[in-house]
Design goal:
140 residues; alpha+beta; Enolase-like, domain 1; three-stranded antiparallel sheet; two-stranded antiparallel sheet; 26% helix
């Protein structure tokens, strides 16, 4: 019996390879903002909002996202894991972090597991969000 090459990653049934998906959506999708110099993307799970295959949330299965909550006091950290694709409810992981630099080590450890190439941009975005100030609405 022949062994499969260890270089070929086996795709779950019904899924499309990342490189093919990027080729399909790279010129046209709903979240693409085209400019003369650089294209940006406003899709979820795109940490730096750049339109490139490295940062896109469409073509990478393990994704990372950071956003402020509605009143701006907490940061939502969301990841999606490929191991639980058969269970959509447990496929994504969401944690709410306070705006503190104490959680940089937590992010560093968790991102090294899934996407080590996004470690620096995620840490920069977290520090930017934690330093941002939000004006609370005054009741009159």
């Amino acid at each position: 019996m022949k062994k499969k090459s260890s270089l070929l990653k086996e795709q779950p049934s019904g899924s499309v390879p990342d490189c093919l998906l990027w080729e399909l959506v790279r010129n046209n999708h709903a979240h693409l903002k085209k400019t003369i110099t650089r294209n940006f993307s406003l899709e979820s799970h795109n940490v730096v909002s750049r339109h490139s295959p490295k940062f896109t949330g469409y073509s990478h299965k393990p994704v990372v996202d950071l956003k402020l909550n509605s009143n701006g006091s907490l940061i939502h950290y969301k990841t999606r894991n490929l191991a639980n694709t058969r269970r959509p409810s447990s496929m994504s992981f969401q944690k709410t972090l306070p705006k503190s630099s104490l959680f940089l080590n937590y992010l560093r450890k968790s991102i090294r597991k899934h996407r080590p190439d996004l470690l620096r941009p995620v840490l920069m975005k977290f520090s930017m969000l934690s330093r941002s100030s939000t004006d609370e609405k005054q009741e009159s």
